[in-house]
Q: What sequence folds into this?
């Protein structure tokens, strides 16, 4: 049996900001790993709820990282869904802030398709909402999607939604009546062919109505429009990279970006992970390699399972690649949903680079990762919190976020009036300030009210496989 490792988080609407993620690596002690889980050698061939629940309990009993925080006394017959039963089993760990919806069941087929190529179905935008005013905004639009084809981009506000123009309903009314989930429901299922009429005010202030149909698309982990660039900040070249998701195609995109950085002599970086909830350990390790020109052979991460599974423990040492650079300063743009593999990259570099800062907000706090156990007859992939990730210094207890472990920080708000990667966008501008030694206010030194409206990613209670990796996507 082969198990895939992920460092990602499953998101629910009640969590603060953007939460999502997942990823994979093998259990062969190499620290690199494959892309997906394979069928479990155990499990029932039937798909009744009772059989699936029994199989789930057996997997958790064998692999769960916190066996003392697993409530095996709960009665599976008391629950109408497998999701609810899993929630009850791991409730003690959630109460202890160790498993905040990180253990869940998803679709094997959907997750494999997304991890391999970013395959998804939808309009192709990422949505956020302001908690104070019941407003919904487009905060990112993906290339090759119906949304971008209709010139819907970052900064657009959704004003009304309906199956057609004659039956549109105000977003504020929808939100005030049923909260974020009601807006999600109004957008319809993430199925190709679903059509909605949407009235919006685009970033330039034009009020218009579009009829848009959901379609299949592949998510580019590093946008060709703004995902990687070299910013000239008063004569100093700064490398900017925005990683949307830690999925398989990311490695090639990251390598190309760092090859360009190396050719230009870049030594200072802005790594934008503001919406990134996690992903594959192997991609996080590749990301570390690209910053290891002078760190070849140094420890990047140590992965530890529960005592009974210690034979699966591994250590990954950095591998300098032809594209690798030797950064002297790194500004990581983060928000409250920056989690898991995103945090792993930051934590992994801390022992090796002195000048590192968080720009924006504290991170989510997820130093644990999942393995995959598959019940193929039912298309069930059980993501189990089974491993802990530490850096070279043994640091891996950042369950409340990385702020207390990172030596520098600058507070900044997510400015959707400017495109991602724009030097004038508030978070990018603040990162440039810190890199240049210009003054900034530390995270936590100002309140939310001073920063502006608190914007959260729009995320369903039970996200699809794609929404786990790219939270807020529709």
A:
């Amino acid at each position: 049996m082969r198990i895939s490792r992920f460092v990602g988080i499953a998101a629910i609407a009640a969590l603060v900001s953007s939460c999502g993620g997942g990823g994979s690596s093998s259990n062969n002690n190499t620290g690199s790993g494959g892309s997906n889980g394979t069928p479990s050698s155990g499990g029932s061939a039937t798909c009744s709820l009772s059989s699936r629940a029994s199989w789930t309990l057996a997997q958790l009993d064998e692999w769960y990282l916190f066996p003392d925080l697993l409530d095996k006394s709960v009665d599976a017959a008391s629950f109408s869904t497998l999701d609810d039963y899993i929630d009850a089993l791991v409730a003690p760990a959630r109460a202890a802030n160790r498993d905040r919806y990180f253990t869940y069941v998803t679709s094997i087929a959907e997750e494999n398709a997304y991890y391999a190529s970013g395959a998804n179905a939808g309009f192709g935008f990422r949505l956020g909402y302001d908690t104070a005013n019941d407003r919904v905004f487009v905060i990112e639009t993906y290339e090759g999607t119906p949304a971008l084809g209709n010139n819907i981009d970052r900064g657009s506000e959704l004003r009304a939604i309906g199956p057609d123009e004659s039956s549109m309903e105000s977003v504020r009314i929808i939100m005030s009546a049923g909260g974020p989930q009601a807006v999600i429901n109004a957008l319809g299922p993430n199925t190709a062919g679903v059509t909605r009429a949407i009235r919006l005010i685009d970033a330039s202030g034009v009020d218009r109505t579009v009829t848009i149909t959901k379609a299949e698309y592949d998510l580019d982990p590093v946008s060709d429009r703004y995902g990687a660039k070299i910013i000239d900040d008063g004569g100093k070249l700064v490398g900017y990279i925005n990683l949307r998701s830690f999925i398989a195609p990311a490695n090639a995109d990251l390598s190309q970006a760092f090859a360009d950085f190396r050719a230009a002599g870049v030594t200072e970086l802005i790594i934008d992970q503001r919406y990134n909830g996690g992903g594959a350990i192997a991609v996080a390790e590749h990301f570390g390699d690209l910053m290891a020109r002078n760190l070849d052979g140094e420890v990047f991460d140590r992965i530890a399972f529960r005592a009974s599974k210690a034979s699966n423990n591994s250590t990954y040492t950095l591998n300098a690649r032809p594209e690798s650079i030797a950064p002297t300063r790194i500004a990581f743009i983060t928000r409250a949903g920056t989690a898991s593999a995103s945090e792993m990259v930051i934590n992994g570099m801390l022992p090796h680079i002195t000048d590192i800062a968080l720009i924006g907000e504290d991170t989510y706090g997820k130093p644990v990762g999942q393995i995959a156990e598959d019940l193929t007859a039912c298309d069930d992939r059980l993501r189990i919190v089974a491993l802990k990730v530490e850096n070279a210094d043994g640091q891996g207890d950042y369950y409340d976020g990385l702020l207390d472990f990172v030596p520098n920080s600058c507070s900044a708000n997510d400015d959707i009036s400017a495109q991602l990667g724009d030097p004038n966008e508030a978070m990018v501008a603040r990162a440039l300030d810190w890199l240049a030694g210009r003054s900034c206010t530390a995270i936590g030194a100002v309140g939310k009210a001073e920063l502006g409206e608190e914007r959260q990613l729009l995320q369903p209670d039970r996200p699809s496989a794609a929404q786990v990796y790219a939270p807020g996507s529709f």
Residues 233 and 436 are 8 Å apart (CA to CA). The chain has three domains: 4-117, 119-218, 228-366+387-450. Residues 171-187 form the longest helix (17 residues). The first strand starts at residue 4 and ends at 8.
